[in-house]
Design a protein that fits this description.
It is a single chain. With 165 residues, the protein is mostly helical. It contains 4 helices and no strands. The protein has one domain. α2 runs antiparallel to α3 and α3 runs antiparallel to α4.
Length: 165
């Protein structure tokens, strides 16, 4: 349901105002994700230097590597819009900035979900053993899929179908 020219339903805004609002909303969302992913990344950097790290299982080693790499990718993608903005600042590319930043944010959230599942696997394998760790981690993955993908996509699809009436 579109409103006036370039505006969302119920909004009277120009295309430039809409892009500014969209980018501002995106930055607010990224602030939430950036803090968590940066804390996770910092803690992962210290784990490898603990004495017990040398004794971890091969499953834990794989989970650690996956967590570290997916968290690094999440940081790159979630901070990426800032770098993109700095480079295109004052070059009249707000539409590109919003489009690319949106994609970076989605990719960053995907990487963050992988990181969270892998870190749960890493920790639970130590606490509960291999088989329960795999099952619980899979459950956590399902929760992320439902909350971060399935429910929003179903909601968006319903809204789009309702708008066609």
């Amino acid at each position: 349901m579109a409103g006036g020219p370039g505006g969302a339903a119920g909004r009277d805004e120009t295309e430039a105002q809409r892009l500014d609002r969209n980018y501002g909303e995106l930055l607010q969302e990224l602030r939430v994700a950036q803090i968590g992913v940066q804390i996770l990344f910092a803690s992962l950097l210290t784990v490898v230097f603990s004495q017990r790290f040398a004794t971890i299982s091969s499953l834990q080693r794989g989970a650690y590597v996956l967590t570290l790499l997916s968290t690094a990718c999440a940081v790159a993608l979630l901070v990426g819009p800032v770098a993109f903005h700095r480079i295109v600042f004052r070059h009249s590319q707000k539409d590109d900035l919003v489009r690319v930043s949106h994609r970076m944010a989605l990719g960053g959230l995907g990487c963050l979900a992988v990181s969270m599942v892998a870190v749960v696997l890493f920790i639970l394998e130590e606490v509960l053993g291999k088989t329960p760790a795999i099952w619980y981690s899979a459950g956590v993955g399902v929760v992320f899929l439902l909350l971060w993908l399935v429910i929003p996509v179903v909601s968006r699809t319903r809204e789009e179908m309702d708008g066609d009436d």
